[in-house]
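Memo to structure team: turn this sequence into structure tokens by end of day. - J.P.
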Amino acid sequence: MPVTRPKKLLFSGIVCAAVLAGALLAYKGTEIRAQDAKPARAAPDIPVSVATVAQQSIAMRIQAIGNVEAYSTVALKARVDGQIVEVNFREGQDVRKGAVLFKIDSRSFEAALRRAEANLTRDTAQKEQTRSQERRYQELLQKNFVSKEAYAQIRTNADSAEAVALASMAAIENAKLQLEYCTIRSPIDGFVGRVMLQIGNMVKANDTNALVIINQVRPIYVNFAIPEQSLSAVRGHMAKGQLFVEALPPNSGRAAVPGKLSFVDNAVDTTTGTIKLKAVFPNKDLALWPGQFVGASLKLYDQKEALTVPSQSVQTGPIGQYVYVVKQNMTTEVRKVEVDRIDGDNAIIAKGLQQGETVVVKGQLRLAPGTKVMIARPEAAKS
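Reply from structure team:
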């Protein structure tokens, strides 16, 4: 029989050695991986823009949409019939009071004036003759050479001749006036609109259509309406002094134009529940133009020591209005606030914040309570 025991022992030894080698390699690999492993990285800080809660004086204003209205508008019409022979301006031109705009053919009116002057010369001569005759008859009456009835007739003739002369003088004044109406001047300072009738056209006195429209824009009005609930406050502050209004043309890129409240309507519009107001503006730089829509801001008073933050910092959620407050350890806290009102870029806070606290202005979408933040760009509240 062949001997097989040593072979079995040799095979068993080889298997054991392989198992031990594999276990050793597995242990070393685990040890190497344990040495190479690094701790998990913390979440990065969220960059945000912040602002400091400021305490300042903020104007209490009533905001409205206004419409610009010319200070005065003149529809220029002819006062005599005739043909236009001159147009002395360009459409849209700035004209001054007294500037000659149109001229109407005046030859017929000049002839009428000469005729009236001739009539006056004739009637004056007749008046002087009858007065001389009246004086002679008066002397004769004193000597009883003529009757009182004859003298009365002569005196009546003299008075009639004098009245005719006075009528001739009035006719001359009227002829001069008609001749003057042939030259049409601007009654105000302003800007002319489109010319309705050009040279060569016939015009009629007081025709339905105007020759041109003139708008006075220095100064100028802005009409706007406010809710009737604000009327008592407006009237109360008007009693204390002049109220001021600012007008801001949309997309103008310029500062608001200052003006003064000049008119409060005498009745509330029952269909809209508003009352109409009007403010006057010097408009020296022509920032406002008739027919333009503007933002009107009526200032009532200055609110002292008001807490303000940029309006962008105020968010609205299930808990109402809130802001993210950055604490000293650079983590965020959700703070519920009560906003008194919005004034331009500022939110006036009635409750929930204190002066000097830091609030997040931009970057709120990535935040949650306790989020670690880093300040990217501080912003200040605008006054």
